[in-house]
Known about the structure:
Blueprint: E1 5-12, E2 24-30, E3 35-36, E4 42-50, E5 55-57, E6 67-74, E7 80-85, H1 87-98, H2 101-110, E8 141-143, E9 154-158, E10 171-172, E11 178-185, H3 188-191, E12 192-194, E13 200-201, E14 210-211, E15 216-221, E16 235-239, E17 245-257, E18 264-272, E19 276-277, E20 283-285, H4 288-296, E21 299-313, H5 316-326, E22 332-346, E23 352-356, E24 364-373, E25 391-398, E26 401-409, H6 423-435, E27 451-454, E28 469-475, E29 482-497, E30 500-504
Antiparallel strand pairs: 1-21, 2-11, 3-10, 3-21, 4-9, 4-21, 5-12, 6-7, 6-11, 8-17, 13-20, 14-19, 15-18, 16-17, 16-20, 17-18, 22-29, 23-28, 24-27, 24-29, 25-26, 25-28, 29-30
Amino acid sequence: xSQFSSQSTLAPAEHQxxxxxxxxxxxxxxxxxxxxxxxxxFLRMNIELVGxxxxxxxxxxxxxxxxxxxxxxxxxxxxxxxxxxNYGELAKIMNVYGDNETLKHQRQLLEAVDTxxxxxHLDLQNALFFKQLPPLADxxxxxxxxxxxxxxxxxxxxxxxxxxxxxxxxxPINAFGGxxxxxxLNRAVKTVMMAExxxxxxxxxxxxxxxxxxxxxxxxxxxxxETLPFSVxxxxxxxxxxxxxxxxxxxxxxxxxxxxxxxxxxKITCVAVDIADxxxxxxxxxxxxxxxxxxxxxxxxxxxxxxCLKQVNPPESYVSDMVxxxxxxxxxxxxIRTYDLVRNNIINGQKVNEQPIRSFSNRVYSIxxxxxxxxxxxxxxxxFASLPAGLQSYAYAIDGQLNPNRAVExxxxxLVGGKHINxxxxxxxxxxxxxxxxxxxxxxVRRDFLIARAVGRYGGVFNLRxxxxxxxxxxxxxxxxxxxxxxxxxxxxxNVSNSGIVVIP
Length: 505
């Protein structure tokens, strides 16, 4: 295709408006767009986060975490050409295991992935979504809240994880009369998280004994104002060494010398919400009730949403041959690598669980199984992190025959002690991901564990249609309730002939 001329074009969202959690963004890509190069096509939009504390997107995924499902139809909506559900969890696999430092920096620039410190904490001074503090002199300076703390609108440009719109081959949109693209958005609590979560130490016992409700108090934190996860207007919990807690609302933040010290820190002015005793050695943090309250009002706003497509213009002879194929009995066949999803629940308290994985595909490369807690969608943690503690072993079986011929040990309970994951499970994971076409550049199995198996030999495919495929997992101790997402990476054939469009799984 190198001899083809090309140009960029835009396909705006069907309704040029603001999109929020749970909504569906629709695109109409008409047939006259001809053929596109997915390698140079991407989704572009502006993102703004809405909430009462400093926020960020998923630390692993950035803007990719916004997508819950991606569906692509032919222009008449008669045929569903591609359907990727639980998109974020699958994108996490590809990002985490396919990352190197260059690609990670690229995603930071293009997909709103925040930078982190060497210790894995958010770089609060260079965070993307909330307002940065102005340069301050080393004197007392009051910081007054002005509007939403998450006021930054961030533009992203991301390639879609799709065999049609994200593959490595030119795709003929005109052969399908155009495309209808639907992007279903996640819930905000799944994709958005606190900038930082944890307890910060106060540096002096300025809160005294009983704090009357409504009375203005002040205390100091060791952290500089630039590195605080809190902002003016936040309600925080203060807990002393005796376990006494009191909620206060922050009314002012200032940079000031810590009393009896030559070190600058943060002076916090606050109003007590409750009446309580709070003494020496206090710690300041977002309490459970505060987090739950903030999660209810959490949201994101997407504006100026558009598909940026790279059109290619092949020679007339190429188009003529394609049209001739489409008008024949045999038709024009296009193969795409895509993913089908089978969800299963693992019941609480079971040490051994066996779940069926129904496949309708006759050309499967690999099976990728992600175990996630049912309660993983929280404001203070990354909802896409995966580490099923207690997993001892797993085994796939086809028609009752183990594949491979014995269970694969994992021993995830040893991670706490710093021991390694079983080498065979790592080897199986590598084979499965490579069979999916992923170039492995990173193996963070201690943080993002994945069960996987390549079912085809030497990178080939295997017929799982009408076969009895199961996954057995063994836990010690008994597992809490979990959701198992089984992605089947397969080769799907799209055929266009004089009889119409047929999707062959």
